[in-house]
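== Fold encoding ==
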Amino acid sequence: MVRNDSLGPLHLEGFDAVQPGHWTLENDGHSVLLQVGSGMAVSGGGLPDVYHTIQLHFHWGGLATNGSEHTVDGRRYPMEMHIVNMKSIHPNESAALDDPTGFAVLGFFIDVVYADNVHFGHISQKLSSVAYRGQTTKVKPFPLLSLLPKHNMSQYYRYSGSLTTPPCSHAVVWTLYEVPILISWSQLAQFTSQIFSTEEDAEQVTPLQNNFRHVHPTFSRTVSASRDAGLLRAAAGRPIRSNLLHIIVLGSFIFKL
């Protein structure tokens, strides 16, 4: 992993505002997605263009297993949230899939504490309305920044990769934030035990669990740490034994220090 001092905070346009209209929460059988319409964009922080925010979604494990798609030093977090942004020059998602930098995805670990996250409640309180595949419900827009670790947004890791769901196109500039979002055990349980991958009238309903992609080789790609990312500083302060291999797993790829 290489420190890149030019990687400062991203510019999150409209993330601190309440957007007009309404958003749509959907269970597509693979995840829970929040379609956020227009009005927000991501740029800067080494991104090659302006990217329009289109949706966010979640990955999680099971009743007793963690389910983030990235891991750090072998640790897998309980959940992970992805904010998906599409390069502004593309007319649709199909066109963006043919561009190696067609999407910029912001990844956030989700960890668990005992108190509810009030802001996360904007989503978790609506989950019962999308328990089954194909169900949708309206969500009143809220400042998306309220969900994020807003005091640590300059601490992240960057690499070029792929979508983690089919067609798994190599079309993503990944930004993985170091500091997690904190939710409660009960909010986590709403995902792991109350969301189903089948339709409501299915003969046998199936819980939606472990919807994360497994790790894949690096294929010689580089992971860059932003100028404020703390993991490298922490590693530099520890004695490294010759028989100890430090591994960072980012998304679908494993990186060795």
Notes: The chain is about 10% helix and 35% strand. The CA atoms of residues 16 and 143 lie 5 Å apart. The chain has one domain: 2-256. The chain has a mean pLDDT of 90.
